Amino acid sequence: MITAAQMRAARALLQIDQRQLAEQSGLSLPTIQRMEASDGVVRGNVDSLMKLVEALHRAGIELINEGAASQTGGRGVRLTTATLPGATPPRSRAAK
Fold first, then answer.
1. Per-residue pLDDT tens digits for 33-66
2. Pairing verdict, β 76-79 and 61-64
3. For residue 94, which of 23, 46, 80, 81 sits 20 to 30 Å off, Cα-Cα?
4. pTM of the predicted model, to two decimals?
């Protein structure tokens, strides 16, 4: 499961817009917009959700589910080392 807030946070970490996420996930821009406008957990067909999660994973985003090991609990996202084409690598961002 992924929440709309996790989607927005993931895009912010990757420094990409909705259009770029749509392209990388193979989904339409209106689908991405609808997902991000959701209240809480994103609802959609399983295929679309899998494409979204896989694209974020390829980009280096780790989704942290409720109850997963973390110091403060709750949901979140974590940026790993891989990034989408066009996204700024994590090391480059830190050097700014």
1. 999 999 989 988 999 999 999 999 999 888 887 7
2. antiparallel
3. 23
4. 0.74
